[in-house]
Write a structure and sequence with these properties.
Elements: H1 2-31, E1 34-40, H2 45-58, E2 65-70, H3 74-83, E3 90-95, E4 98-104, H4 109-118
Parallel strand pairs: 1-2
Antiparallel strand pairs: 1-3, 3-4
Length: 131
Amino acid sequence: MQDGFKRRWKWIVSLISCAVAAIVFWAGASANQTKVVYVFSESCGYCTTFTPTFEQVIREFPQWQVERLDVHDKRDLAEAERLGAEVTPTVFVVQGGEVAGKLEGAVSATAFRRFLQKHLTKPLSGKSNGE
């Protein structure tokens, strides 16, 4: 009877240890991940102009997590203000939880791509950073 209890106990301890290790690994990986944060407003004319450019260019960077913050949502607005957004549209590159770059206004696809490439940590497939 005790052998069965010991085996179950060891199995439970092993399972909990694996779960804790997975959570720690995931948290560390997320903290070091590069993320693009797009701050916008549906009622902003510049955002309406820039959003298609944002969506087109960001597809070239599939390795990056993208977060969209609508300033009409209270939680999104609070996060946008915490990052340092003062106008819409604003794009942030966030690395390790810290703002690594900030781009304000409706810019061209070329200017937006150049901004993202400046903060790129992984090379684009089939493209060099100079293109």
